[in-house]
Write a structure and sequence with these properties.
This protein is mainly α and 81 residues long. It has a domain of 49 residues. The protein is 67% helix and 0% strand. It has four helices and no strands. The longest helix has 15 residues.
Length: 81
């Protein structure tokens, strides 16, 4: 395999346009690959899932107080008999 120094010396012998083309090729090879739409979707989903359950609310829902609500429902039915 050639050393980088040898390759640089050879590149100096190229025309200006060929050197620009070589640089564009090298930059393109070094650029990070863009994620596919599926990879981007999964990454977004993972971020949302990581946040799940971390929100705060001053209000409770029915499931939080389910036994209280169930007791009220059964009490209403029992009182109607």
């Amino acid at each position: 395999m050639r050393s980088v120094r040898d390759l640089a010396e050879q590149a100096k012998q190229l025309s200006v346009e060929e050197r620009r083309q070589l640089i564009e090729e090298l930059v393109r090879d070094l650029a990070p690959a863009q994620p596919t739409s599926e990879e981007a979707r999964r990454a977004g989903l993972e971020k949302w899932l990581a946040l799940a359950g971390t929100g705060h609310s001053d209000y409770t829902d029915v499931s939080t107080d389910k036994y209280k609500h169930l007791a009220e429902i059964y009490a209403d039915n029992h009182d109607r008999k």
